[in-house]
Amino acid sequence: MPGELRTSIIFIALLLTACFATAQTAQSTFPPGSPQLITTADLLKALQDPAGTKPVVLNVGPSLIFMQAHIAGAEFIGATSSPQGITSLRNRAKTMQRDVSIVLYCGCCPWEHCPNVAPAYRELEKLGFKQVKILYLPNNFGADWVDKGYPVIRGQ
Amino acid sequence: MRRSWLVLLIVVLAAAYFVNERHKTSGSTGPKGAVGTAAPEFTLQDISGSPMNLANYRGKVVLLDFWATWCTPCRGEIPHFIDYQNKYAAQGLQVLGISMDDDAKPVHAFYDEMKMNYPVAMGSSQLADSYGGVLGLPVTFLIGRDGRIAKKYVGAVDMAVVEQEMTALLQAK
Across the interface, do A108 and B74 touch by the CB < 8 Å criterion? Predict the structure, then answer.
C-alpha cells in the first residue's frame, strides 16, 4: 500500500473516531440502570434523611427551566453543553472537596437527548471528583419530578 | 319587616348572579395552559424585531411551539412546522415559535440555517409559567380560532396526529 494512501486511511479513521466521540459526549451516554445514575426516589430519600449527609445538587440545564422550578436546595450552574456552563462548573468545583457527594441534574428534554448531563459528569470526573451521580429523569424535569409532587422551589 | 325581606331578596339575587357568572366563565378558567382554557395572551418581539402578539392571530388556528436549539427532538420537528406553515397558511394556520434558549445568538443562526418561515421570539420563565410551565422540551399547543387551547403535546409529537388534529381545527370555521 503506498504511503500516501495509508496516511489518508489513518487520517480518515482518526477523524471518524473523533466525530463519533464528539457525538457521544454531546448526548446523554448513560443508559438507564448505569451505576453513574441515581433515581428520583433515592435522591428524595437522601435529601429528606435528617441523619444523612445531603448531596450537593447541581442543576446543569438551561436557566429558563431552572427559573420556573428547580429541586429545593439545588444550585444553578448553567447548561454544560456550552463552554460558559463548563466554566461555571469548574468555578464551583474549586470550592468543593473531591470526596463530596454531588448529584447533577438537567431534565431539559428526554433522557437520551439531554446534551448537558454527560459533559458535566465527564468534567467532574476529570477534575477528580469520586462521588458524582446523575439524576435519572427519563422524560423531563416536569414529568419526572415536579408532577410527582417532589419538593421544588418555583419562580427563582 | 318589609325592608328586611327586601334586603334578603337583594342578597339572594346578588348571590345567584355571582354563581351564574362564575358558572358562565368556568370554561375559561382552570389550570394554566390546560386544554379548553383561553390561551394566555402575550406580546413579544420576534427575533427580527417585529411584534408578536397572540391576540393578532385570533380567528386563525395557532400552532405554538416551545423549543430550543439544544433540544434534538425540537430540531426534528421544525422542518414539519415549516412545511405546515407553507401548506396550511391559506386555510388560516399560523405557526409561532418560542425559543427557550438562554441566548438569542444560536436561535438566529438556526433560524437562518433552517430558513424558518414563521415568527420566533425568545421566551421567558413568566411566559412559560403562564402556559402551565414548560419544564422540559418540546411542548406544543394547538390553539383554536376561538383563542382556546385545543391540544397540548408534551415531548416529541407524532406528526400524523398533529396534522390530523390541526386540519380538523382549520375546518371548524
Answer: no
What does the block give as the cell for A80? Answer: 454544560
* Mean pLDDT (whole number) for A61-79: 97
Residue B16 scores a pLDDT above 60: no
Structure confidence at residue A155 (pLDDT): 82
* Packing angle, helices B72-88 and B105-114, rounded to 10: 50
pLDDT at B11 over 50: yes
Q: Is the pLDDT of residue B96 over 70?
A: yes
Q: Do B135 and A65 touch (CB under 8 A)?
A: yes
Residue positions counted in chain B: 173
In terms of Cα–Cα distance, which of A49, A68, A91, A48 is closest to A141? A68
Complex ipTM more than 0.85, yes or no? no
Q: How many CB atoms sit inside 10 A of residue A121's CB?
A: 24
- Could you give the CA distance from residue A64 to residue A62 in angstroms, rounded to a whole number? 6
User: Which residues does A103 contact at the CB level (< 8 Å), separation at least 6?
Assistant: A38, A43, A46, A55, A56, A57, A58, A132, A133, A134, A135
Of B68, B129, B155, which has the smallest distance from its Cβ to A62's Cβ? B68
